[in-house]
Predict the structure.
Amino acid sequence: MIDKELLNILACPYCKSDVVLKDNKILCVNCKRKYPIKDGIPIMLIDEAELEEEK
């Protein structure tokens, strides 16, 4: 689980927008990239991101 204070200071490295926690991944609220969390550490690298599928 990610600490709420850490989540508040993180930003998407691609578009610099805010992020939220969703399905144990860090999700950008703007560009919808999902960044993985490995061993409790968010991997905020653009190359590691997935695009969230639109429903």
Summary: The mean pLDDT is 92. Strands lie at 19-22, 25-28, 33-35, 37-38, 41-42, 50-51. The first helix runs from residue 4 to 9.
